[in-house]
Amino acid sequence: MTEISRPVLTSDDWHVVKIFVQFLKVFYDSTLTLSRAYYPTSSQAIHQIVEISEMLNMYRDDNILGTAVVAMENKFKKYRSKISFLYALGVILDPRVKLSGLEVFLDYIDSKLDIDFSEQVTDIRTKLFEVFNIYECRFGGVNTQPSE
After folding, report:
1. Counting Cβ atoms within 10 Å, is residue 11 exposed (0-12), middle (13-18) or buried (19+)?
2. Among residues 50, 78, 62, 77, which one has the least CA distance to residue 23?
3. What is the pLDDT of residues 84-122, one digit of tens each?
4. Where's the hAT-like transposase RNase-H fold domain (predicted)?
5. Where are the domains of the chain?
6. Nearest-CA neighbor of 49 among 114, 99, 108, 8?
7. How far apart are CA 68 and CA 118, in angstroms?
């Protein structure tokens, strides 16, 4: 007589798998979004950082993932506590977001991961106006005269 075999994964195991898949999906989606080759992705980087920070915050106290998430969050904060000017400029140049939207995004990330971006926002604003002034000096102001 053969012994009836148990299922390889129990319902509890499937529950853990489901949680892992939900957690890792945001990283998968971010990788796909930021790895595209035929259009610029720098304007999407801050959006993806927002998504990841939300996911880390959501699973920080989870019984299954909590310990790993805290370690991931510390590593994430180490590398993402300074926002690249390129990423910031990409978001600022998006007419739907602008500088005020960038500040909202950074405040949101701060609320999820406790990262203070206030000094960086000041630096980004200063660099943005420096770039604008260089552009204005090189190409002049806007011509308000109607063309004939």
Report:
1. exposed
2. 62
3. 999 999 999 999 999 999 999 999 999 999 999 999 999
4. 36-135
5. 11-139
6. 108
7. 29
